[in-house]
Amino acid sequence: MKFRVSAVQYHLHTIQSFDDFAQQSEHYIRTAEEFEANFVLFPEFFTTQLMSIGDDQGKALSINDLPDFTDRYLELFIRLAKQYDMHIIGGTHVIRRAGKLYNVAHLFYPDGRVAEQAKIHITPSEVTGWNMGAGEGLEVFETEYGTIAMLTCYDIEFPEIVRMAKAKGADVIFCPSCTDDRHGFHRVRYTSHARAIENQVYVVLTGTVGSLPTVDLMRANFGQAAIITPNDIPFPPKGLLAEGELNHDMIITADLDLDLLYQVREKGSVTTWRDRRTDLYPDWE
């Protein structure tokens, strides 16, 4: 089975209203539609742009204000997924549950359904700066194009959680990310390649670009989208189907062929999934 994915290098800048956010989001989705994409991925924390709208005194909103936009965020992306007949991974949005904040990836189906995956591993800055809570479970999601998982930024740096996603049947890992410097960016990028090789899966990765000068922890962004494959003969030698230009406002698109994954798992140059030594270390299958 083949299908097409797009990944958005979302340009963060100060906006004046929710409508500004909605128009920018729809612009990327319309672009993905022009490329006939079946999935479009937005980055982690891209809805923090809403904090730049500010309050009545012109002061930027805080992270505790961001969940107040949840209903409008959900309504917007449910409508867009239906209107453009597309699966949208709406980056991540901060929600509040039982008085605690969680960083949650959302999958919007074309039929109006919404699935969620809370970020499982929380960085020190998210804990100290925003008091963010950690998700407690991993889910995979069935779509008409196969089984996917959504693992956010820091999550991809932990081999065990991606191994669990593969054991649950995921062939594609969508990884919305947000990094503020080269070090963080390359941690996520390099480990995305490692996870694709270890588990013989696709990883679709993207990040925020631009800046929000008035929003704490979002003043700097360093990002680049990439559509990553295992490193084997049916795929490009560098394991890259597509990548964006660093820190540019843009969208990238490529076709994923699941049959190639199944082929290399059976008789590739290496068969890393099949050859794992479960007699020596735990497995999640």
From TrEMBL:
InterPro entries: C-N_Hydrolase, C-N_Hydrolase_sf, UPF0012_CS. CDD domains: nitrilase_Rim1_like. SUPFAM superfamilies: Carbon-nitrogen hydrolase (SSF56317). Residues 3-258 form the CN hydrolase domain. Keywords: Acyltransferase, Lipoprotein, Transferase. Belongs to the carbon-nitrogen hydrolase superfamily. NIT1/NIT2 family. Transmembrane segments: none annotated. It holds the Pfam family CN_hydrolase. It comes from Paenibacillus lactis 154. This is Nitrilase/cyanide hydratase and apolipoprotein N-acyltransferase. Gene3D superfamilies: Carbon-nitrogen hydrolase. One of its GO terms (molecular function) is acyltransferase activity. The keyword DNA-binding does not apply.
